[in-house]
Amino acid sequence: MPSAASKASPATKEASNVQHSDQHQRARRPPDPQEHQRRPRQGPERDRDRAQGRHRQGQQLVLVDRLDDELGRRLLQEARRRADLGLGDGGSKGDPDNRAQNLEDLLGKILRIDVDRGNPYGIPMDNPFAQDGGRPEIYAVGLRNPWRFSFDVKTGNLWVADVGQYKWEEIDLVTRGGNYGWRVMEGTHCFLPSTDCRTTPFKLPVSEYFHDQGRCSITGGYVYRGRLIQGLAGVYVYGDFCSGEIFALQHPSRDQPLNEPRVILKTSLQISSFGEDAAGELYVLDHKGGVHRLAPP
């Protein structure tokens, strides 16, 4: 079982922030975790990524103030050409405006834009709605609050951790044009309506967990491609903000499409993010302060 090493040196801190801009990584003062259960969109996830939503003027993404509720933003850039952005639904309890399913709204989506052409950016021609049918920036839909996503550096798979409303946290393997169910579903469970929802259009998560054992808000990580911890090779590593647990998840198979999370480390950290260095080693960012490297015991 790996351990969270002591605080990293300044050089290690810099390495751990690969692919994380300050704006998308910083978390704010966490409130009482019990508030997460009592009030809509209150608690650690609101604190971590409350800020701005986005809308469109012409073809440009413009930052604007939205409602007083999150949701998260994350940006990855691949090969200096395409940038991927994760936007939460931006609304209050239960996505009342159904933005996550609205193909003319950028919120509740994974977006992909071309940063090497266009003014101010271009649209990749293989985006699912590049020609018509919805906003051309959209790559995938039906997300509530994608709190950290990453590409597996070996396979290119896109792993997204999506924060739930009240009960279920989920992990999705996101593909072009996929619809991941929010607000109809929370994880593999009906949300609106609460029973007998239609699930056939949606891609189900590869893993989910319930808000028990002190768990309340998922924090996505990376597929481990380092060398220090042999037992984690090819395994997706992620955590929970409230419980401080770090989990490992095997890639889903046809025989077991929905995997249960496996706890590999219990910590006292408020896990707000993970980082990956050039060697594939992983780091854990503590909302209370500090960067810790995952290492063998």
Describe the structure.
- The chain has 4 helices and 20 strands.
- By secondary structure, the chain is mainly β.
- The chain has one domain (3-295): Neuraminidase (6 Propeller).
- The chain has a 4-stranded antiparallel sheet with strand order 1-20-19-18, with helices on one face. The protein has a 4-stranded antiparallel sheet with strand order 4-5-6-7, with no helix packed on it. Strands 8-9-10-13 form a 4-stranded antiparallel sheet, with no helix packed on it.
- The chain is globular and about 55 Å long.
Topology at a glance:
Layout: E1 3-7, H1 10-16, H2 22-25, H3 35-38, H4 44-49, E2 52-57, E3 60-65, E4 73-78, E5 82-87, E6 109-114, E7 138-141, E8 146-151, E9 158-162, E10 168-174, E11 185-186, E12 189-190, E13 207-210, E14 218-223, E15 236-240, E16 245-249, E17 262-266, E18 271-276, E19 282-286, E20 291-295
Antiparallel strand pairs: 1-20, 2-3, 4-5, 5-6, 6-7, 8-9, 9-10, 10-13, 11-12, 14-15, 15-16, 16-17, 18-19, 19-20
Write a concise synopsis of the structure shown.
7% of the residues lie in helices and 34% in strands.
Task: Name some characteristics of this structure.
single chain, 297 residues, mainly beta, Neuraminidase, 4 helices, 20 strands
- Give the H and E element order: EHHHHEEEEEEEEEEEEEEEEEEE
* CATH homologous superfamily heading: TolB, C-terminal domain
CATH topology: Neuraminidase
Mean pLDDT, as a whole number? 81
Q: Let me know the number of strands.
A: 20
Classify the secondary structure makeup into a structural class. mainly beta
Total of helices: 4
pLDDT below 50 for ≥5 consecutive residues: which ranges? 8-59, 63-71
Summarize the biggest pleated sheet.
4 strands, antiparallel
Please state roughly what percent of the residues sit in beta strands, choosing from under 5%, 5-15%, 15-25%, 25-35%, 35-45% or over 45%.
25-35%
